[in-house]
Amino acid sequence: NAGVTQTPKFRVLKTGQSMTLLCAQDMNHEYMYWYRQDPGMGLRLIHYSVGEGTTAKGEVPDGYNVSRLKKQNFLLGLESAAPSQTSVYFCASRPFGGPSYNEQFFGPGTRLTVL
Amino acid sequence: QQQVKQSPQSLIVQKGGIPIINCAYENTAFDYFPWYQQFPGKGPALLIAIRPDVSEKKEGRFTISFNKSAKQFSLHIMDSQPGDSATYFCAASRRASGSRLTFGEGTQLTVNP
Description:
The complex is a heterodimer.
Chain A: E1 4-7, E2 10-13, E3 19-25, E4 31-37, E5 43-49, E6 56-57, E7 64-67, E8 73-78, E9 87-94, E10 105-106, E11 110-114
Parallel strand pairs in A: 2-11
Antiparallel strand pairs in A: 1-3, 3-8, 4-5, 4-9, 5-6, 7-8, 9-10, 9-11
Chain B: E1 4-7, E2 10-14, E3 20-25, E4 33-38, E5 45-50, E6 56-59, E7 62-67, E8 72-77, E9 86-92, E10 102-103, E11 107-112
Parallel strand pairs in B: 2-11
Antiparallel strand pairs in B: 1-3, 3-8, 4-5, 4-9, 6-7, 7-8, 9-10, 9-11
């Protein structure tokens, strides 16, 4: 049981390049989330999904797109990277119900630098 | 617009001390208040959580105090240890919004031996 995994762990991009971050969970969770973490700003929600085939905007969605084609995977895309997107990105998932329905389980993060 | 404000930004205590981290929220519809703990290079992990129908919750050395009228809640760590050195985030959510978490800014805690 790997929990939530993220690929890649580190990435350096040049301004204007594109990339996709992959999040995978093996806990059969319905909900998945993408956050960015910046110093002094906590974690801010980018996009989230309440189930396979659904996505919704969070607090800071501009410049990002997401897809949830399979229940276990949640992809975050940057179409044209900007230096302001330099951050640490975390994926999280949680179940729809059960005793832990409010607990979000986080991946180890992806450190992205945009030059 | 920061709906959950956390203080202090950083905190240094000696082993055995009782660090206290405070959070204040604006949205009275929030109905779930967790604290997450994050070690360097790792993702956050749930530490303890409380609902607004109780004023205090204790799990081991960690206690949440909740003041609904003041819209504030705090984390107390009893008999702190160097292994408690981490970044702590408070958060809040409401079930009606799909339990999306709004996080505070984070507090970097250092417990010196």
